Structures are given as C-alpha cells and as structure tokens.
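Sanity check record (used in CI):
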Amino acid sequence: MENDVVNLFKDLVNIDSPSFKEGELAKILTSKLEELNFKVELEEHEGTVNIIAKRNGEGEPILLSSHMDTVLSNKGVKIIEEKGQIKTDGNTILGADDKAGIAAILTGIKHAVSKNKDLISLVVVFTYGEEVGLNGAKRVEKDRIGAKYGYVFDSGGDVGIAINKAPSEIDFTAEIIGKEAHSGVNPEDGVDAIKIAGHIISALDLGKIDEETTANIGVIKGGEMTNVICPLVELKGEVRSHDFSKTKKIAQEFKEVFDKNAQKYGGKVEFKKEIAYKDFYLDKEQEVVKYLERNLRELGRKLELKSRGGGSDANVFNEKGIPTLNLAVGMTNGHTTEEFVTVENLVMASKLVEKLVEKESRSG
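Expected output for M20/M25/M40 family metallo-hydrolase:
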C-alpha cells in the first residue's frame, strides 16, 4: 500500500490545479474512479467541475470527499522525499492540501477492491474551488449526494484526529465614500475617507472577542496621491463564531458602527455582508463518529475529536443535512512552501479508507 499511495500522491502533486483550474486533474480522477467501477458525473460550474462518483454496494452510502484545488499554483514543483516526509525544494507549495486526501481515498478503495472485499455503497465527491470560498461544495445538491453521513479528508495532524466542531463565518466589504479635494489648496472642502476608516476601525471590537468568536479586517484599499483628500476607501473583513447567532449579531453591529461613523464625519458607506459558511457540531454519540472510532480502533488508532477555527467542505455538507467529519491526513504547514506530509500518515489514511468502505466494517 505504501508504494501505491506515495506514487499516486506524487503523480497528483505534479498536476498543477489552483482554484478554477482543476480540469486536467478532474480528467485523471474521473478515469481512476471509473476503473474502480464508479459511475461518474461531472457537474460544471464557473468554468470547472465537481466530480460526483457513485458505486453500488451494501446499505446506505457514505460520502468520502476531498477538494481538487490548491491554494496557489505549484507549477514546476520539485518533490523531495526524505526521512519519512514528502515536501518540496521550498520554491513552491506541495499541494498536500488536499491531494493527500484524494490519494488516500483512491488508494484505500483500490486496495479494498483488489482484495475482492464486499463494499458498502459509496459516494465520492471531489470538489473545485474550496480554497476560495468552498465554492464547489456549495454547488453540489444534497439529493445528488444521497449519503447517510460523510468524511472529508482535509485536515492537518495525524490520522485519528477528526474535526467535529467548526465555526460559522460572515464576510463583509465596506466602501467608505468621502469627497476629494486638493490637500494643499482647499482641504476643508474634502471629506477624508481614510480618516473615517480610522475612526471606524478604532471603534470596532477586533481580534478574539470571546472563546468562540473572532473578528478581523484584513484588507484596506484607498488613496492614489498624497496631495488629494482620499474620496474612497474599501475595507474587507470577517466575523467567525461557533454560535451562528453571535456571528450574525456582531456583523450587524459592525454595520451600525460603519454607518454611524460615516455619517458623523460627513461621508457615506456601502456595507455588504455574506454568509461564507455555517457552523457545525457533531457529538460523540452520532453514528458518523461511532463508525469512525470503531474503525480507527481496529487500526490501533485512538479517535481525537477537535474543534477548528476555520471552515471546510464539511461545514457545507453538514449544512446540507449530511453529518460530516473533517479527518486529518497528516499534512503540515499547509498554504506555505514549507508544507509536507508524512508517508506514515498517507498510508494510515489509506488504511482507514479501506476499513471504512468494507461491508464487514459496517456489520461489525
């Protein structure tokens, strides 16, 4: 199994697939799924595709999912394997997020099939555009999945870790509208959008608000010349909480702060907010958790349930009514050129998939 998953992982990493450019990878994955007797459908959106693949077996199907896109291009990647780790030469990302998950899913199923094991019914979904807003998962219809529960393979850490709690997020964009004037001739005729933005930011409660809630402004754009009173500033930010009611409340309070300060200092504001994803929590008594725990135990691994501060496709599938955990596949330092994955975790994740899909695991 080690050679299979390592070689497949390296092959996948060598296919450049940044967000919205997953097409070449999707063709190869489609072929591999068809070789495993899956019926594959391609769902076209935004110039790219989701892969929805189904294989008949015993009982209600479970969902296995990973995303095809990487946070950045890794064109020209040079893969280095040493001391049990797979990494790059430091000039590009690796792409273990989330090709480690894809490799584990395909290898685990392949080994179960090669042993002539009876399998449970399966739905494999490989999504596009996860890194830019969970776009692919959001566009998959629940009825097209039809799974009882599911597992997304897209978390860092050692195999055995499962994310059973993740926050909601609301993103916002605000345009602060002032009035331009010459800063050296008639500054009193201008309305400084930068000054208004400063008052707004000072009035906002940013950072860690409480144990389950954070807020941040991460983008500021405005001004072109030093001799012009700035007429327009754009701010972009987010609010996150494990309590969706808090997320909504704080986002609304932020809007009120923007409106109040813009009016106070003679400007206007256009404030737009959007739900990025909703929170989820799956307790240890749910079937999706118990099934995972039982199969990990048979592999000599202990289940470790954890909370996470960010969203994943699991948030979306849970919102669609499919209880879904986000499982660790061993990737470390994701979204950086120092990213790596351990061979041990790749193998263990593949073995876990093999166990999850076997009919005898469910009957046991």
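The longest strand covers residues 58-67. If this sentence no longer matches the regenerated tokens, the check is flagged for review.
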